[in-house]
Fold:
Amino acid sequence: RTQFGLSVCVSLLVILGVSHSYASDLPDYITALDEKTRQIDRLPTREVKKSLLTGTDGGGALSAFWHEGQIRRLKIIIVMSNRQIDENYYYENGQLIFVASKQSFFLWDQEAQKLEPGKIAMSLEDRYYFVDGKLKQWNTNRAAEDLSSQNSNIAKENETVLKQSNFFMQTARDDKDRVDIEAFIKRGTP
Structure:
């Protein structure tokens, strides 16, 4: 009886130890990249803003945050009739390390029969963590049940996010203050 109890306790400790070891790798990695993004946010930067001609109702804006001759962060806002998209791209040594993307869908006012841009009905959030130019971790927060079948093909997502990053990086470096990106918006990828 004592041996059985001891055996169960040892087995549980081994299982918990392996589980903890595996689980602690991911949070440490994510924590490290999250800290890098916080450091980038605290850097003294020179902000360069551009209007984005998106073909959408509310248009868009791009802000490039430069530090020591390099773009360290890009912030993109695109406003449509039913939602706003906010994306932040973070770079270290010219290479993409993190992307935070949020789509906020406006609330439908049943009484007024119109969307309320100041009120959010639901948000979809994605966080992309990159190492050596490749997507290492993709965390998504889908608030709507009907989106539970979201395609989680990480290779396709890696390609799409990298193309978007390159597109917006080129847009940030464009000499114009207003850049037409309507074709990009319509296709969803550059």
Observations:
- Residues 1-24, 143-151 have pLDDT under 50 and may be disordered.
- The longest strand covers residues 114-131.
- The longest helix spans residues 2-42.
